[in-house]
């Protein structure tokens, strides 16, 4: 037990003296969060579309319609002439161009059905090569026109729809990203960091000198894990404090449960890192192997976007790897206030991954290169 605590303390001292490790482990996740938070904004509205409008009618109705479009959430209206607007649509600077022709106000003033064969009073110009933007843009414009049409003919609906928001807590983009950044930090620090460090120590003969002592491989691995668990806990707290004070990111669940999931994630990826280090003869081979394993997890682990948006072909892969369960567990606690009972699946899978990986790491651990 004494050897275990001495190893843990020695590793913490090594961390404290390694300036590069402090910069990459502490400041990189915070910088990433600040960069993504600044780029994507604090708000929860992820929809953004620019609409160019040319008003040839200059009636009360055309001005009212312009105001209605401008008031749509995420829509920015620019008033520019046709030729300039068409070029902006071609370049992608404007999502859609709307033109109100003369006679629009007269048609609405009459309040009669639109006669067949008569020219349309409103024209839409958009780029069909971008179907998502064009579909959303036409829907937004058509909704505004429909509202104005109904108002002009004094339309009274026979049936109304009541909308109820079942999300009790507002979820913004940054609220979704912070748990993902924590998950990425845990995976990178432990899987990539451990694999390269242990392989380097083995090549330099540090582990060979330890082998001459009564130290067991399981004790050595346990000491490394404990030191990194403490380090990751400090890193997570630092990231969460910055997220709270800068972006007002709240943790709705238990801090104790959050730290427990961070612990499980650290144990899991450290054990995998030890397996990679045992299979690699040099740090030059350990780094690429660790990168080959961790890099795809960034895209299929739900770090930056929901797992449900991934193709169906990748869903079995997502359900088999630990990063997705770590991210789900962190988001469950932070964004939903989930309890341990509700997070039984992520915690069970992470525990199973840790138990199997630690057992393999202890059996395959090598003190020497040979």
UniProtKB/TrEMBL annotation:
InterPro entries in the cross-refs: ABC-2_transporter, ABC2_TM, ABC2_TM_bact-type
GO molecular function: ABC-type transporter activity
Protein keywords: Membrane, Transmembrane, Transmembrane helix
Key word Lipoprotein present: no
Compartments in which it is found: Membrane
One Gene Ontology cellular component: membrane
Pfam families in UniProt: ABC2_membrane_3 (PF12698)
ABC transmembrane type-2 domain sequence ranges: 138-368
Topology versus the membrane: Multi-pass membrane protein
Principal cellular location given in the protein's record: membrane
Tagged with keyword Lipid biosynthesis: no
Ranges that cross the membrane: 21-40, 176-199, 220-246, 252-277, 289-307, 343-365
Protein name: ABC-2 type transport system permease protein
Naturally occurring in which organism (per UniProt): Marininema mesophilum
Taxonomy of the source species: Bacteria, Bacillati, Bacillota, Bacilli, Bacillales
């Amino acid at each position: 037990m004494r050897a275990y605590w001495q190893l843990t303390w020695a590793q913490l001292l090594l961390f404290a003296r390694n300036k590069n490790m402090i910069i990459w482990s502490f400041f990189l996740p915070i910088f990433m969060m600040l960069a993504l938070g600044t780029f994507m904004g604090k708000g929860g509205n992820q929809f953004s579309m620019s609409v160019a409008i040319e008003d040839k009618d200059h009636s009360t109705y055309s001005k009212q319609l312009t105001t209605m479009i401008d008031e749509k959430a995420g829509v920015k209206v620019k008033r520019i002439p046709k030729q300039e607007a068409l070029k902006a649509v071609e370049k992608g600077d404007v999502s859609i161009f709307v033109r109100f022709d003369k006679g629009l106000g007269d048609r609405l003033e009459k309040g009669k059905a639109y006669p067949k064969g008569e020219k349309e009073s409103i024209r839409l110009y958009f780029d069909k090569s971008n179907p998502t933007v064009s579909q959303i843009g036409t829907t937004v414009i058509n909704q505004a026109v429909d509202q104005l049409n109904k108002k002009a003919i004094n339309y009274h609906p026979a049936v109304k729809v009541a909308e109820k928001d079942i999300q009790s807590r507002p979820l913004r983009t940054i609220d979704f990203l912070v748990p993902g950044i924590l998950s990425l930090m845990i995976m990178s620090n432990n899987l990539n960091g451990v694999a390269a460090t242990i392989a380097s120590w083995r090549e330099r003969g540090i582990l060979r000198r330890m082998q001459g002592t009564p130290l067991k491989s399981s004790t050595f691995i346990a000491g490394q894990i404990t030191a990194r668990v403490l380090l990751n806990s400090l890193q997570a707290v630092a990231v969460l404090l910055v997220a709270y004070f800068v972006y007002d990111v709240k943790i709705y669940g238990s801090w104790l449960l959050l730290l427990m999931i961070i612990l499980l994630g650290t144990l899991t990826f450290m054990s995998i890192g030890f397996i990679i280090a045992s299979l690699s003869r040099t740090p030059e081979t350990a780094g690429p192997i660790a990168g080959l394993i961790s890099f795809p997890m960034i895209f299929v682990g739900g770090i930056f976007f929901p797992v449900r948006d991934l193709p169906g072909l990748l869903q079995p892969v997502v359900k088999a790897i630990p990063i997705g369960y770590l991210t789900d567990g962190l988001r469950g606690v932070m964004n939903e206030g989930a309890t341990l009972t509700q997070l039984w699946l992520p915690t069970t899978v992470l525990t199973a991954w840790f138990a199997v990986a630690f057992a393999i790491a202890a059996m395959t651990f090598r003190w020497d290169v040979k």
